[in-house]
Amino acid sequence: MEIPFAITLDVGTSRSNHTGSWRVERPVYVDRMPPCNDACPAGENIQGWLYHAESGNYRRAWEKLVEENPMPAIMGRICFHPCETACNRVQVDEAVGINAVERFLGDLAIEKRWSLPIPGSDTGKRVLVVGAGPAGLSASYHLRRLGHQVKLVDSASQLGGMMRYGIPAYRLPRAVLDAEIARIVAQGIEVELNHVVHDVERERVEGKFDAVFLAVGAQLGKRVNIPAGDSSRVIDAVTFLHQVADDDPPLLGRRVVVYGGGDTAFDAARTARRLGATDAVIVYRRNRERMGASGEELEQALGEGVTVRWLSTVNRFEGEKMVLEKMALNAEGFPESTGEFEELGADALVLALGQDTDLSLLDKAPGVNIANGVVSVEQSMMAAPNGIFAGGDAVPAERTATVAVGHGKRAAHGIDDFVMGREPGVKDRHGLATFDRLNTWYYADAPRQNRPELERIRRQSTFDEVIGGLDEDNALFEARRCLSCGNCFECDNCFGVCPDNAVRKLGIGERYEFDYDFCKGCGICVTECPCGAIEMVPEKI
Amino acid sequence: MTSQPVHFYQVGSFAVGNRLLADDQRTVQSNPNRANSIDSGHRACQGCGEALGARYALDAAMRSCDGQIVAVNATGCLEVFSTPYPETSWRIPWLHSLFGNAPAVATGVAAALRVKGRDDVRVVGQAGDGGTVDIGFGCLSGMFERNDDVLFICYDNEGYMNTGVQRSAATPPAARTATTDVVGPEPGNVFGQGKDLPRLAMAHDIPYVATATVADLHDLERKVERAMAMRGARYLHVLVPCPLGWGSASNETILLARLAQETGLFPVFEAEDGVVTNATLIRRRVPVQDYLARQRRYAHLFGSHPRPDVVERIQAMADRNIERYGLLDASDQQVSV
Amino acid sequence: MLRQIEGSRAIAETVALCRPEVVCAYPISPQTHIIEAIGAMVKAGTLAPCEFINVESEFAAMSVAIGASATGARSYTATASQGLLYMIEAVYNAAGLGLPIVMTLANRAIGAPINIWNDHSDAMAVRDAGWIQFFAETNQEAADLHVQAFRLAEELSVPVMVCMDGFILTHAVERVDILDQATVDSLLPPYEPRQVLDPADPVSIGAMVGPEAFEEVRYLAHLRQLDALVRIPAIAEQFAHVTGRASGGLVNSYRTDDAETVIVALGSVLGTIKDAVDIRRELGERVGVVGITCFRPFPAHAVREALRSASQIVVLEKAFSVGFGGVLSTDVAMSMHGEQHVLRSVIAGLGGRPITRRSLEALIAEAVRGDLPALTFLDLDHGAVDRERTRMAGTRRSGPSAENLLRDRGPVGAAAPRTES
User: Fold this and answer.
1) Does the beta carbon of B241 lie under 8 angstroms from any beta carbon of chain A?
2) How much is the pLDDT for B331?
3) What residues 131-170 of chain B have any CB closer than 8 A to a CB of chain C?
4) B chain contacts of residue C88, beta-carbon cutoff 8 Å
5) Chain C residues close to A6, C-beta within 8 Å
6) Mutating which of A11, A14, A52, A519 best tests the B interface, going by the most B Cβ atoms within 10 A?
7) Interface of C with B in 202-231 (CB under 8 A)
8) Which of A85-89, A423-427, B117-121, C323-327 has the lowest mean pLDDT?
9) Coil, strand, or helix at residue C35?
10) CB neighbour list of residue B299: distance below 8 Å, 6 or more residues apart
């Protein structure tokens, strides 16, 4: 219609008024490091794979997961999940059950026979990996993805290292272990078992390897000098668990004392129970707060009838009598002798006091620096300039499978740089997505879904897996509890809350962009972003 | 019937949208093809709650009647910032007449549509709190009483912000405005005055009365849709914080609306035929000072000469609302405030 | 059809023939009979389709009309006096928005003192609002003017007010020829708005216009009113052609051909003036009358032409600008600028004071003699005024003048006798 002058106006005319000129600060979208990712020793992009799991696209989630870690079904069982400790959701209700979802994805992948990504195109470079534990397997996988040929050797008769020989089957069923290892090997890895490397430098040269990754683990159980009678049965936990894994368990009798307070001690005690021990007693010189094992492990062990003698040391072991000394913690928290003793009937003593690494294979390797029984490495995991890299329990770090997986990945990239003649790249890390950046109002109250536990009676006599998996409903629920800290998950808040319609929605997976022609810089989008993925920056003058 | 919250355990229940929600569970605002009834380029202040509230409400109304809307607007911020010659921000047919007559003008529009048999076109009247509770109340009451087929929306920012922040009958006690200065023994607006428009509306026994805030989009949109599903006089009272008049940070507009609700100072409820049918429960109760202290209009209650006695009186108002509307889940633990 | 009918009823029936779509009103004497009748027709279904809205105030009445008109509905309301003043903000607004609302104004005085009887103070109070203002001399003309008003309003997108004297016309029962529907339809095509609230073609009506365009908006409104000065005679001519009856137009002259003294007036008083003129003519006085039918826009040119031959102009009006004098007089004076005329103002009939033929005859005689002062208050009780002035000079708290004057006059009209304390 022909409208009257001035008093009547046509639609759309206000768009010629670019209110963006009012702005002194502008909002920008950012990606921040979620605390779970930050805490993951394996360097998983947890938020990234949960993002896909949330939508029920488990395949995509799993693919995202195995970009960093090829063993989710294993890690979903044995990882001590520092991600959950770091999870921001702890401050809302409880941490997201990341580990449980990881296991769900891992198990689903095994069930569905999903394949790992196709290896990279061949670089013609050859890498020797010594040790087929988590570090060696991880390194082999990543090296294959980078297109390098891999020869994986291990002294044992089966692959898996400590995952097979240190972790009991009730925590990690062998079918799961075998499935994930087989999938890695299927990436085109040359495997040689029962192969003990005595001189790594010689094997490197003779095998014409461009690099070597040492992941020999810490297979030697530490011994302490405990007076013991000749008839007393004393065994170290590593050997004990290895023999059990080889289906050749030693006879320990009905009353087994395990000395130590780490996960291995609990594994040994729980294994002893399953082998028929009526008494499985852990003797630990510190108290519960200071033990190395996880609280979960303790709870499960107690549930299976394992008992613990806190603040005690094994003084001597004579025949069927074990003498313990009571300890007290001093001001610094160190245990000190009290001079009080007590006796305990025992048929065997299992020493779970830590492990050492056998590094004799490096005796003739030039340029390798060994200190405190472990190999010194650079950030890239390089141990010697001629292309020897090391990781896992053989280098200074926390000795867990997850750390080892991370080492394997990092070493693979270090080796890649080395063999391709590149300077090691430095990766930028995003700033941490701290809790104070979140607007938790927008997250619905959602209690954590816990995994089922095997009934006690079966846990005392069989090696059936103790912790069950989540069903799909629970896994999906749990995935959706993720706050997506620091990373846009397309909740449309910014798009909705802008009083100036200055946010454009780009479509699923494409996120949003600001229309700076109209954004006045009020900052509501920043305040109302649930996950802290927007920040204000000053306008340039 | 109480509303059924969307149970979507990440954010679907509270955020604007979510890539994982079914379309019918998403808000109108999450739709990239939403009407944007009020377009970019308007001259509202940074962080204006009214600009936001108007788009929220009108876009929802647009969706519920397939874009067949005519809006009538009272004089005020919304009118001034949206239609300064030669630019309008409205993408819908829109009429501004006067400050105090929007409800009557809306009645006229509705009458014209009815006589022309255009039942498909719906009328929305809108005004700020001044245009609703003060100067427009006569016309509004008449519109209610006749049960004219108009949805009237009050965007309540608790004062005459357009003219420079003067007191209205919706200005809360103790608040500083240009006409309730922070001088004398009882600084700010006086206690015991003001109009509770939603309850006055209910007293007309009109089909639908509801309150909402810009902090709870799902609730607001649901109420607009509920209102649009009815005929006759309907009233929606939306709290829209005003950074300028409240002395708040421009980024805290929605936060303040949320706190107003979560303190109990602004009860969010709905009523049909004069009877309250539903109250939105407080989810995370907070003491009133958490709300007050973020606004310079209450700065005189804190600072070097704090007035805990006044804060306590305001808390008592919140407590009374909580009791009147049953704003706490009975199973909830009483939070100490 | 010629009928013996009350003025208000004639208006109601004629408005109904105009097919109004929205009628809204708030009762105020002496407008009530008009809207009562229309309301009854709508309720009975004889006027359909039409929405009749009982609003809560005149402010709402005009506002409803604004909304309805902007939505493309032919809209009508009626008011008077205080009611007009109560809606005045919306009256200006309707004109500013260019909405072709038609309103009957049953002219009535404005309080205080409250007074329900006729004068033109109400119409004069809104003469600058931007409305076209017609003044009807008879109920026939009042009825006819409503048809022309809708036609004009919608053609130009300007609101039109048809002023008719309260009680004198609204409540007078006399012969009126009520047109038939076909005739009205032929004079008044369906309303096609210049602008309309339409979801299919959305616009924003009622923008805030600043200094950069406000004057232009006002000037355009002025031009539309000037256009009306052309359209009004044309429409009246068409009306006459169809109905055979002269109604409306800008001005009408009576016995002015050789008149030396011409009386100018608005509305129903013209009839009495014409009677007085006839009598004075018989006495040989060369007097005539010019009635102004269209007060806004003021037809300065037509007025000037009508008065050109006169040497003395007496403007008799039922309103005045306190502290100055006649309102119409000022407009006539402006129109006659440059001409050599004696111009006299007579204020008469305020608050319903009867303007008798006898008084008018005396007035004409005085004028013809050349004795009429510049400003005259017809039939003013100077004694009452003097007594009150004396009272006011003598005591500070002399009380309300209106009450005092009534007390002086004794028990008449609505005033109850009061005992002097």
Assistant:
1) no
2) 60
3) 138-139, 141-142, 145-146, 148
4) none
5) 207, 209, 213-214, 216-217
6) A14
7) 202-210, 212-213
8) A423-427
9) helix
10) B176, B182, B247
Which token pair is C333? Answer: 């004076």
pLDDT at C418 over 60: no
Minimal CA separation from B263 to chain A, in Å: 15
Determine contact: B88 vs chain C, CB below 8 A.
Answer: yes
- The C-alpha of C181 sits at a distance from chain B's nearest C-alpha, in angstroms, of 20
DSSP H helices in chain B: 49-64, 77-82, 102-115, 129, 137-146, 197-203, 217-228, 243-246, 253-263, 288-292, 308-325
Residue B148 · residue C66 · CB < 8 Å:
no
State whether residue A9 sits within 8 Å of chain B by CB: yes
Whether residues C152 and C281 share a domain: the answer is no
* Residue from the list A9, A518, A527 with its beta carbon closest to the beta carbon of B41: A518
Residue of A1, A7, A10 lying closest to C206 (CB–CB): A7
pLDDT tens by residue, C204-253: 999 999 999 999 999 999 999 999 999 999 999 999 999 999 999 999 99
Domains and CATH numbers, chain A: 15-31+488-538 (3.30.70.20), 39-115+440-479 (1.10.1060.10), 126-220+356-419 (3.50.50.60), 222-353 (3.50.50.60)
Q: What is B23-325's CATH topology?
A: Rossmann fold (3.40.50)
Q: Which amino acid is at A483?
A: L
Q: How confident is the model at residue C160 (pLDDT cuts 50, 70, 90)?
A: very high
Q: What is the ipTM of this complex?
A: 0.94
Q: Which of B7, B14, B40 has the CB atom closest to A442's CB atom?
A: B14
Q: Are residues C85 and C223 in the same domain?
A: yes
Contact A14 B87 (CB under 8 A): yes
And the tokens for A431?
């700033």
Q: How far is CA C124 from CA A9, B154, C113, in A?
A: 33, 37, 18
Domain identity same for C237 and C309? no
Same domain, C185 and C328: no
3-state secondary structure A166-231: CCCCCCCCHHHHHHHHHHHHCCCCEEECCCCCCCHHHHHHHCCCCEEEECCCCCEECCCCCCECCC
B residues 48-77 near A, CB within 8 Å?
A: 48-49, 51-52, 55
Q: Which of B109, B142, B145 sits opposite C67 (nearest CB)?
A: B109
Q: Does A331 touch chain B (CB under 8 A)?
A: no
* Partner A, chain B 195-224, Cβ-Cβ below 8 Å: 217
pTM of the predicted model as reported, rounded to 2 decimal places: 0.91
Between CA B248 and CA B264 the distance in angstroms is 19
Nearest to A308 by CA among A331, A348, A279: A279
Give the Cβ contact number of residue C399 at 10 Å: 12
Q: Are A33 and A484 in contact (CB under 8 A)?
A: no
* Strands, E assignment, C88-145: 102-107, 132-135
- Residue A327: its H or E element: strand A321-329
The size of chain A, in residues, is 541
Please give the sequence-ordered ranges of beta strands (E in DSSP) within C155-250, or none if there are none.
160-165, 173-177, 203-205
Find out whether B70 and B83 touch, Cβ atoms under 8 Å: no
What is the b/e burial string over B215-233, where b = at least 16 CB atoms within 10 angstroms of the residue's CB?
bbbbbbbbbbebbbeeebb
CB C319 within 8 A of CB C124: yes
Report yes or no on C259 lying in a domain. Answer: yes
With a cut of 50, which residues of chain B have pLDDT below it?
1-6, 333-337
* Residue C310 structural domain: 251-377
The type of residue at C295 is F
Strand, coil or helix: what is A12? coil
A143-161: pLDDT as tens digits: 999 999 999 999 999 999 9
DSSP code of B133?
I
